[in-house]
Each structure stands twice: as structure tokens, then as C-alpha cells.
């Protein structure tokens, strides 16, 4: 202890706080009744409500997908007219993107895990968190109402001038999505502020779990991009309501301008969808390799790099829309750049697994499936980012296959990895490993069966969004449909064993996977305030070579001790006195 | 709360007066005939000065954590990205070949 | 890290359970408001982008159409809004110095100035509606010799309309602050809602500072 000059190191006494195993009282039963749930400001309950909503919409979107694939079994009309088909694929896209993919990891899993991983008692603005959920619900209700009272057939991208003139319910749906966007913005805002202000003592920026780096990068994108979507949807609504003409060539407007505004959000939106997935994969791979993550700073900074570069590339969706050649070339070049940080991550994860003590539990299987599927998706993305190639592949099934590989093979698989990883923490129950693996295998096989043929079809010229096609594509479509049904069966199996786990599954210990991360040092399920002490961190988040006891340290006290690095006044030193 | 900067009333009035003065300048400048595009540059420049005064001394960024200033600057940077690259398209369109 | 705020201090500063002390809560609230202001800048940014794109295509239209906007009243509105920024800064100052009466008076003046802004806006819009300058397909004014004149005014209505909505929201927030101030909730150790509402109001002012020359002063 320095006594001469003003030392800014303070020694504090810490104790070990082992998490309570199989707690009687936890966050789900500490506040009783439906009113308690509806007015809760507890991030865990809010995360759970988001999770249920997201899974519901995933189911709805999935059913729509199966309808599409069933129609496409034969070239001619099977049971849907072309305008019904248009509505179904529009809804499939809009629901999957806005109601499942965007909120699933940040608002559902992220809300649950983020404060726990920071050692905080809640997010920075708990009431805003609840507002975010109700805004989501309001947006969802408006959109569902719009679907049932007229539907929408513009494609999820709402391109003008068709979206400004079609008689379907564009106005109501864009208004519903406008409302929904605020949910995303508020969640992002909450996360950024929480990560800056509510870290437990000892969690410096170089000890922040990579899941939180990913959520931080995602939140930055949410906060910067979603407002532009909001104004775009507002302009489209005004275009329909008042005929303002900004996007109407007859009135001097420019339909391509709509595309600029739309994709300025929607391209970063795909990073909102995938970057949290990257965070989950970092956690899962490190835990199930029992090894320190390879290239911590590379992965952390590459998340930020993807967030930044993702804002520069939106025009690669518009290569054939009538942009200037200059813009085309600039966008194509910038698109190549965004592959670099992503590639860095993949290599780092593989290097983490190398010589690790691999435990092939269900979350790890999903993570490994992710590595394979996302790499394919990423590669094909670079291919269609190539300007000359894109001219031929735009609006074909190649694009459809590409984005399903990254969105479903990447994001949904990562979400499933996270769901299976944190299931014991959230619900305090274990699920059947056997059925988990079966389901994972079926999803992997079914997914590739569905989408691999689509790459081939697309490169041979099969256009997307078409409800009939020429005979040469039929074998591909049929294989694709069989794959889709295989996935459907796999998801039914998953629903069954997860439901069984909730009702009759064995109780989960606090740390079934032996992870070093902070959320596993709370009980399963956690108590209402997460921790009854203030956790103190002295190691990095993936230091598997350190004993578990060093991750369970804390000081007594009922509120979070904040780490105020800006004033640089207090640092928790390496040597702490530990009391059993 | 200790440590929060409290501006004197006189200081706030000085800032406000500067803003009123700059508003007058903005209008007066339009009475002089400045060639395009410099008249727009002038107007935006004066607006930027006014905005900076509001940001620094009414919103207290001058005495606040640097991070909040960086947040604001970041938002302006992203706005420039939006408008800059969009203009790369809209300003450089060439009419298609007539015979097509 | 030892925690030195007492339970009494936590109560007086309305500290929520997940914060250490009032200071952390205050700084967190401010950071949260700045992040929100970032989203507002991007929100209006889209409209500014539309403005810039169309001005680059139809510069003569902008010059002609701008003559329909009354520079005098636009200048008055600018002065009014800057004045309201001054008074809201004074309101925060009063709160910091525990002068609650001063806080309430300054809030009242700010609300008054904001309402003045809206009244002037109302007259501007009413005059335009009378002569047929309406948004979009309802535009019927013949006085501008440019076939695309409605585009300028569509942008004008979107930008000033959205800005006006933000002013109204600000008025609502400040009325709420007055109600709370009268109930003696604010004092020099707790005035966070006043501070963050002030930040919001200043941004509304900044947006107008840019709207004014871009719409009214195109010569």
C-alpha cells in the first residue's frame, strides 16, 4: 500500500460467494401474479417475455416458409395464386426479420444475460426496458392487424413506386414497423449506457466478455441506423397518405432515393442480427473448449469494425437499381472490406478450439454448425458483392440462399446455441442431451438440403419471389422442400424436449458447463436482484487456467460498485485477500 | 451535487446574446449577393457556430465528460456517411444510352 | 470499493436500487439522453439528406419556392427558440442553486416561448393552406413557375412538421416538470429530469438553427 504519493490503488477485502444451488426463491417466483409480470422492471422477466414473443413469431414465420416451399413443389399453381404467394413471402420476410431476428438475441437473450455478465443488478433504465417491450408488442399488434385486414405484397423491402401505389395495407404495416423500431432503439440505448456505467469492480474494458463487446457493437448500430429506417417509413407513410411525391417520378421524386434510405438501415440491420450471434459463439466455443479465447482484442475490435464498415456498404443491394457507376464501384469495393473482420473472427474461433478440451454438448454442436454454415454464407456474400457477378445473380435464388445461410445458418443457429447454452440459467432445468443432438443434426442436414440447391438454381437463373418456374428447376425445388420439412420436424422435436425440460426436466446446477463467465456465478435461475453481493473481478473472462473460486469473489453490499475509469481513481489490484 | 458546473446568469446571457447576434448576421448575409455555392457554405457555417455555442455552453459539453462530445461528433459523422455516399449516386447519374 | 452514501442520501436523491449513488445515476441519465439525441440527429438527418439531394437536382426551384416563406416570422421564431434555450438553461441553473421558485418561473417562460413558436407556426401554415400550398397531391398553388414546386413544400412540411411535433412534446415534458417542481421534488441534489429535458430542448433548438437558413434564407 503506497503511502508516499497519492496512489490510486486501493486494496479491498473480498470474500468468496458461492452461488446457491437449486434455489427455492428465484426471479420467476419472487414476484407473484400476472400483474407482477406485466409491470415488471426486472430485465430477466422482460427478456423472457421477449423470448416468448420472438419464438412465437419464429413459429409463424416458419409456417409461412413451409407454405411457400409447399407451393413450389410443382411449377404450376399448387394451392396459391400468385398474389397470395406475394403476400406470403412478404410476410415471411417481414416477420422473420423484424419480429424474430432483430429482437431475438439482443432483446431476449441479451436482456437476460447482459446485466448478469456485468455483475449488475439490472440494466441502466429498467422502466425504459419495459417500455421497449410494450412498444414491440404495440408494433406487433398493428402489423398483425394489418396482415389480417388486407395484407401486403410488396416484398419485405417495400420498394417504391409499387409500395406507394399498391392497394394493400402498406400504410398500416409501415406504421407498425415504425413503432417497432423504437423498441430496437431503446434496447440499444439501454445496453450502451449499462455497459459504460454499471460494470462491476474489476471489469475493465479488456476484461469485458466478448458477448458484451458484441452486444455493444450491436447497440451502436441499433442506435445509429434504426432512426433512419424510422424516417424512411414515415416518408413512405406520408407518400401514401398525402402523395408528397418524394419517391414518385411523376412528381419529380426518385424511387432510388427510397432504396438508399431503406438500405442505409437495412444493411446495418443484418449486422444487428448477426453480431450478437458472434458474441454467443465466442462464449460457447470458449466454454466448451475449456480454453481461453484466441485473439480477444481481435474479436472485440472486429465487432466494432463490422459495425462501422457495415454502414458504408448499403448500395450493394442496389447495383442494378440505377445507381451511378461511381457509386456502384465504391460500394463493391467497400463490401469486400467487411469480410475481413468477419474472417478474422472465424479464424480466431477455430484457433480457440485447437488443443482445447472439447465437450460436444448441444450448444457446442450448434456453434460448430454455425462455423460451417456461416462461412458458406459469408463467402457467397463476397461473391455477390462483386459488381460484375451481381449483375447476373441479383434477384435470383443465389441471393436467397446467401442470406438464408447467414441469417438462418448463422444467426438462427447461433440463437439456438445461445438458447441451449443459457437454458439452464434462465429456467433452472436441464434438457435431454440426446434429443438436443438429434434435433441439431436434423436441422443441419435439413438446412443444407433446403438451401444448397438454391445456390445452384440461382446461378442457373431461377429468379426469386416467383411462384412458378420452368421444369428444369423442379428437382432443386423438390429437394429444397424436403429439406424444409426436415427442419420443421426438427423444430417440433426441439419444442417437445424443451417443453418437457420445463415441466419435468432435472434441476440445473448453477454452473452446469463449468464456465468462468459471471452469469454462471449466480444461481440457476438467478434471484430477483441477480447478486446479493457486489461481484469483484480479478481475472479475464476466459481464464480457464485459473481456479473457479477466483471467479466467485465479491464484497458485501447491496448495490453495484461502479468502476469509474474516467476519474481513474480506483483499481482493484491483483492481490486480494480471500476468505473462504 | 458537487462537481456539477453551474454557469453564471451573466454567462448564459452572453451566450444568448451572441446567438441573437449571429441570427441577425445570418439574415444580413442574405442581403449581400454571394455567388453559389458560397452562400450556402456561409449559411451553414454560421449555423454551425451557433450550434456549437448551444452544444458547448447551454448543453454544457465544454465541462462534461469527453465521451458525450464524442457521441455527438459520431452522430454527425454517420450523417455525413449517409449523405456523402448517397450523393455519390445522385450527383453522378448519367442518362442511359438513347438507342437502348 | 467502499460505498459512502447513506440511506438518507439515496432517498433524497431518488436513487434506484441498481445504482451506487445519486452521482452515478445522474451521469447515467445524462449519457442515456445523449445517446437518445444521437438517434434524433440521425432521424432528422434522413430529412436533411432528402433536402440536400433534391436541392442538388432542382436548385432554381428552391430559390423560387423559398420566397413564399416569410423571412421575418422565421427570424422571429429563431429568436424565440434561442430565448427558450436561454430560459431552460436558467431553469437548470435555478435547480442547481436550489431556487425552486426560479426554476418554476423559468420553466413557465420556456413553455410560453415554445407556445409562441407554435402559434407563429400555426399562422404560417394557415396562410399557406389558404393560398393552396398544401402537402403532396393536394398542392394547388399556381404562384411558382416550376412544375415540381410541390416537392420543396413536401420537404418543408415534413421537416417543420416533425420539428413542430418535437416542440409540442417538449412543451408536454416541461409542463410535467412544473408539476413535479411544485410538489417540491427537485432540489440542488436532485434535478436530473430537468437536466435531461433541457438537453432535449436544446437539440430541438439546434435543429431549428439549421432549418431556418436552409428553408427560409435561400436567396
Main interface by residue count: A-C, 54 and 42 residues
State the shape of chain B.
flat
Quantity of strands of chain B, as a count: 0
Q: Assess the beta-strand content of chain A as a share of residues.
A: under 5%
Give the integer mean of the pLDDT values of chain B.
89
What's the story with the biggest beta sheet of chain B? none
- Name the quaternary structure: heterotrimer
Strand order of the largest sheet of chain A: 2-3-1-4
End-to-end distance of chain A, in Å? 23 Å
Shape of chain A: globular
Ranges of chain A where pLDDT stays below 50 over 5 or more residues in a row are 559-580
Q: Which percent bin holds the helix content of chain A?
A: 55-70%
Q: Which runs of chain B of at least 5 residues are low in confidence (pLDDT < 50)?
A: none
* Beta strand count of chain A: 4
- Our Rg estimate of chain A from Cα atoms comes to 24 Å
In DSSP terms (H or I, runs of 4 or more residues), the helix count of chain A works out at: 15
N-to-C SSE series of chain B?
A: HHH
Can I get a quick summary?
Chain B is 67% helix and 0% strand.
SSE blueprint and pairings:
The complex is a heterotrimer of chains A (580), B (100) and C (219).
Chain A lengths: L12 E4 L17 H5 L4 H29 L10 H37 L7 H23 L13 H4 L4 H28 L12 H33 L12 H35 L6 H14 L15 H29 L8 H24 L1 H7 L3 H31 L5 H27 L14 H31 L28 E3 L17 E4 L20 E3 L1
Parallel strand pairs in A: 1-4
Antiparallel strand pairs in A: 1-3, 2-3
Helix pairs in contact in A: 2-3, 2-4, 2-15, 3-6, 3-7, 3-8, 3-13, 4-6, 6-7, 7-8, 7-9, 8-10, 8-11, 8-13, 9-10, 10-11, 11-13, 11-14, 13-14, 14-15
Chain B lengths: L8 H21 L8 H21 L7 H25 L10
Helix pairs in contact in B: 1-2
Chain C lengths: L6 H6 L9 H36 L1 H8 L4 H26 L3 H32 L17 H34 L9 H25 L3
Helix pairs in contact in C: 2-3, 2-6, 2-7, 4-5, 4-7, 5-6, 6-7
Question: What are its keywords?
Answer:
heterotrimer; B: 100 residues; mainly alpha; 3 helices; 67% helix; flat; C: 219 residues; 7 helices; 0% strand
Overview of the molecule:
The complex is a heterotrimer of chains A (about 575), B (about 100) and C (about 220). By secondary structure, chain A is an all-alpha fold. Chain A is built from 15 helices and four strands. Chain A has helices at about 35-40, 45-70, 80-120, 125-150, 160-165, 170-195, 210-240, 255-290, 295-310, 325-355, 360-385, 385-395, 395-425, 435-460, 475-505, and strands at about 15, 535, 555, 575-580. Chain A has a four-stranded mixed beta sheet, with no helix packed on it. Chain B has about 100 residues and is an all-alpha fold. Chain B is about 65% helix and about 0% strand. Chain B has helices at about 10-30, 40-60, 65-90. In chain B, helix 1 runs antiparallel to helix 2. The radius of gyration of chain B is 20 Å and the shape is flat. The N and C termini of chain B lie far apart (about 70 Å). The mean pLDDT of chain B is about 90. By secondary structure, chain C is mainly alpha-helical. Helix content of chain C is about 75%, strand content about 0%. Chain C contains seven helices and no strands. The longest helix of chain C has about 35 residues, at about 20-55. Chain C is elongated, with a radius of gyration of 21 Å. Classes of the chains: A mainly alpha (about 575), B mainly alpha (about 100), C mainly alpha (about 220). Chains in contact: A-B, A-C, B-C. At the A-C interface, helix 6 and helix 7 of A face helix 2 and helix 6 of C.
Amino acid at each position: 500500500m503506497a503511502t508516499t504519493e497519492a496512489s490510486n490503488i486501493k486494496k479491498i477485502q473480498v470474500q468468496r460467494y458461492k452461488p446457491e444451488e437449486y434455489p427455492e426463491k428465484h426471479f420467476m417466483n419472487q414476484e407473484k401474479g400476472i400483474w407482477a409480470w406485466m409491470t415488471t422492471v426486472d430485465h430477466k422477466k422482460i427478456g423472457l417475455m421477449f423470448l416468448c414473443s420472438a419464438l412465437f413469431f419464429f413459429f409463424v414465420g416458419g409456417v409461412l416458409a413451409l407454405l411457400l416451399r409447399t407451393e413450389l413443389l410443382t411449377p404450376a399453381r399448387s394451392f396459391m395464386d400468385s398474389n397470395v404467394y406475394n403476400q406470403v413471402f412478404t410476410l415471411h420476410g417481414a416477420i422473420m426479420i423484424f419480429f424474430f431476428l432483430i429482437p431475438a438475441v439482443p432483446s431476449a437473450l441479451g436482456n437476460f444475460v447482459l446485466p448478469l455478465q456485468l455483475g449488475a443488478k439490472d440494466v441502466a433504465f429498467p422502466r425504459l426496458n419495459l417500455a421497449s417491450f410494450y412498444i414491440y408488442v404495440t408494433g406487433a399488434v398493428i402489423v398483425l392487424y394489418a396482415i389480417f385486414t388486407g395484407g401486403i405484397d410488396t416484398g419485405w423491402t417495400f420498394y417504391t413506386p409499387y409500395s406507394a401505389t399498391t392497394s394493400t395495407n402498406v400504410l398500416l404495416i409501415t406504421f407498425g414497423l415504425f413503432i417497432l423500431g423504437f423498441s430496437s432503439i431503446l434496447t440499444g440505448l439501454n445496453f450502451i449506457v449499462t455497459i459504460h456505467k454499471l460494470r462491476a469492480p474489476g471489469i475493465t474494458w479488456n476484461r469485458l466478455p466478448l458477448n458484451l463487446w458484441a452486444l455493444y457493437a450491436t447497440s451502436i448500430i441499433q442506435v445509429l441506423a434504426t432512426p433512419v429506417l424510422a424516417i424512411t417509413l414515415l416518408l413512405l407513410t406520408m407518400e401514401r397518405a398525402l402523395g408528397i411525391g418524394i419517391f414518385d417520378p411523376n412528381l419529380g421524386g426518385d424511387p432510388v432515393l427510397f432504396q438508399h434510405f431503406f438500405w442505409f438501415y437495412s444493411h446495418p440491420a443484418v449486422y444487428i442480427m448477426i453480431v450478437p450471434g458472434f458474441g454467443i459463439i465466442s462464449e460457447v466455443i470458449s466454454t466448451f473448449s475449456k480454453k481461453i479465447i484466441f485473439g480477444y482484442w481481435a474479436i472485440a475490435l472486429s465487432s466494432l469494425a463490422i459495425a462501422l464498415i457495415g454502414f458504408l456498404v448499403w448500395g450493394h443491394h442496389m447495383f442494378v437499381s440505377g445507381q451511378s457507376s461511381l457509386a456502384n464501384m465504391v460500394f463493391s469495393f467497400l463490401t469486400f472490406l467487411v469480410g475481413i473482420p468477419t474472417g478474422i473472427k472465424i479464424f480466431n474461433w477455430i484457433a480457440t478450439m485447437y488443443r482445447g478440451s472439447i465437450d460436444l454438448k448441444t450448444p457446442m454442436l450448434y456453434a460448430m454448425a454455425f462455423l460451417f454454415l456461416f462461412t458458406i454464407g459469408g463467402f457467397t456474400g463476397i461473391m455477390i458483392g462483386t459488381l460484375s457477378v451481381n449483375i447476373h445473380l441479383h434477384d435470383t435464388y443465389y441471393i436467397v440462399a446467401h442470406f438464408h445461410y447467414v441469417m438462418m445458418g448463422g444467426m438462427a443457429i447461433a440463437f439456438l446455441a445461445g438458447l441451449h447454452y443459457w437454458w439452464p440459467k434462465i429456467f433452472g432445468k436441464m434438457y435431454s442431451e440426446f434429443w438436443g443432438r438429434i434435433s441439431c443434426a436434423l436441422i443441419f442436414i435439413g438446412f443444407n438440403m433446403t438451401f444448397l440447391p438454391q445456390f445452384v438454381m440461382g446461378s442457373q437463373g431461377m429468379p426469386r419471389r416467383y411462384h412458378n418456374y420452368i421444369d428444369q428447376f423442379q428437382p432443386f425445388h423438390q429437394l429444397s422442400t424436403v429439406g424444409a420439412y426436415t427442419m420443421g420436424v426438427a423444430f417440433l422435436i426441439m419444442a417437445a424436449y424443451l417443453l418437457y425440460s420445463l415441466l419435468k426436466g432435472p434441476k440445473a446446477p448453477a454452473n452446469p458447463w463449468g464456465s468462468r463467465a459471471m452469469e454462471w456465478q449466480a444461481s440457476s435461475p438467478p434471484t430477483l436482484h441477480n447478486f446479493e453481493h457486489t461481484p469483484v473481478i480479478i481475472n479475464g473472462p476466459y481464464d480457464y487456467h485459473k481456479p473457479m473460486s477466483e471467479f466467485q469473489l465479491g464484497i458485501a453490499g447491496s448495490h453495484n460498485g461502479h468502476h469509474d475509469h474516467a476519474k481513474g481513481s480506483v483499481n482493484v489490484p491483483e492481490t486480494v485477500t480471500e476468505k473462504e | 451535487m458537487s462537481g456539477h458546473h453551474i454557469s453564471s446568469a451573466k454567462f448564459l446571457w452572453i451566450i444568448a446574446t451572441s446567438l441573437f447576434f449571429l441570427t441577425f448576421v445570418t439574415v444580413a448575409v442574405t442581403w449581400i449577393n454571394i455567388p453559389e455555392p458560397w452562400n450556402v457554405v456561409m449559411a451553414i457555417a454560421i449555423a454551425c457556430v451557433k450550434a456549437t455555442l448551444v452544444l458547448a455552453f447551454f448543453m454544457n459539453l465544454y465541462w462534461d465528460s469527453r465521451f458525450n462530445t464524442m457521441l455527438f461528433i459520431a452522430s454527425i459523422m454517420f450523417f455525413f456517411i449517409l449523405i456523402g455516399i448517397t450523393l455519390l449516386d445522385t450527383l453522378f447519374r448519367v442518362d442511359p444510352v438513347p438507342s437502348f | 470499493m467502499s460505498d459512502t452514501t447513506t440511506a438518507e442520501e439515496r432517498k433524497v436523491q431518488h436513487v434506484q436500487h441498481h445504482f451506487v449513488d445519486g452521482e452515478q445515476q445522474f451521469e447515467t441519465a445524462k449519457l442515456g439522453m445523449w445517446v437518445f439525441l444521437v438517434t434524433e440527429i440521425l432521424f432528422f438527418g434522413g430529412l436533411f439528406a432528402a433536402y440536400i439531394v433534391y436541392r442538388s437536382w432542382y436548385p432554381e426551384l428552391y430559390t423560387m419556392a423559398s420566397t413564399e416563406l416569410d423571412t421575418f416570422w422565421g427570424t422571429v421564431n429563431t429568436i424565440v427558440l434561442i430565448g427558450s434555450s436561454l430560459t431552460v438553461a436558467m431553469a437548470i441553473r435555478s435547480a442547481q442553486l436550489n431556487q425552486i421558485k426560479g426554476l418554476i418561473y423559468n420553466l413557465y417562460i420556456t413553455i410560453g416561448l415554445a407556445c409562441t413558436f407554435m402559434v407563429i407556426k400555426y399562422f404560417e401554415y394557415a396562410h399557406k393552406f389558404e393560398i393552396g400550398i398544401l402537402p403532396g397531391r393536394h398542392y394547388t398553388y399556381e404562384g411558382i413557375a416550376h412544375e415540381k414546386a410541390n416537392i420543396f413544400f413536401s420537404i418543408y412540411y415534413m421537416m417543420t412538421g416533425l420539428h413542430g411535433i418535437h416542440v409540442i412534446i417538449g412543451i408536454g415534458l416541461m409542463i410535467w416538470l412544473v408539476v413535479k417542481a411544485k410538489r417540491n421534488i427537485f432540489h440542488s441534489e436532485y434535478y436530473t429530469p430537468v437536466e435531461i429535458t433541457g438537453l432535449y430542448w436544446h437539440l430541438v433548438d439546434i435543429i431549428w438553427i439549421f432549418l431556418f437558413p436552409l428553408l427560409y434564407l435561400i436567396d
